[in-house]
Amino acid sequence: MDHAQESYVTMVHGATISTPSEEVKVLRLTVERKRRGLSQAQLSRIADIHPATLSRLEAGKAFPYEGWRRRLERALGVSGDELFELVDKAESKGAGDGCTRS
Predict the structure, then answer these.
(1) Domain residue spans in the chain?
(2) 3-class DSSP state for residue 21?
(3) Measured between alpha carbons, how far is 25 from 21 in angstroms, rounded to an integer?
(4) CB 92 within 8 A of CB 32
(5) Per DSSP, what are the bridge partners of residue 25?
(6) Which end of the chain has fewer CB within 10 Å, C or N?
(7) Distance (Å, rounded) from C-alpha 72 to C-alpha 44?
(8) What angle do CA 91, 28, 76 make, to 5 degrees?
């Protein structure tokens, strides 16, 4: 397999997703956290979620239970459904630069 055919594989909500490496997807949760300039440790404190749990959620390795979704929704001001959507990694470029977007 040459580089252009490499795939990125992740598990989200119990389903394995494989996409070409040029089209890597991330959860909106990660994008929104970075957009606010927060580390995983900071967001885990704000949302009262164990740091390892937040890391597993962002990696798609843990199911986002309703309680965790509500805490993250309140902490980030984004609906829980939206936080667990896959978005293009390119959308996260510029996230975390401290700029406010309107």
Answers:
(1) 3-92
(2) helix
(3) 9
(4) no
(5) 88
(6) C
(7) 9
(8) 120
Cβ–Cβ < 8 Å for 7, 20: yes
Strand residue runs (E) in the chain? 7-12, 15-20, 25-27, 86-88
Strands 15-20 and 7-12, bridge-based pairing = antiparallel
| pLDDT tens over the chain, length 102 residues | 444 334 444 555 555 555 554 567 899 999 999 999 999 999 999 999 999 999 999 999 999 999 999 999 999 999 999 999 999 887 666 555 444 333
- Token pair 């996409």: residue: 19
Q: Residue 5: what pLDDT? A: 37
Tokens of 62: 């843990």
The class level of CATH for 3-92 reads mainly alpha
Instruction: List CB contacts of 102: < 8 A, sequence separation 6 or more.
Output: none
pTM of the prediction?
0.69
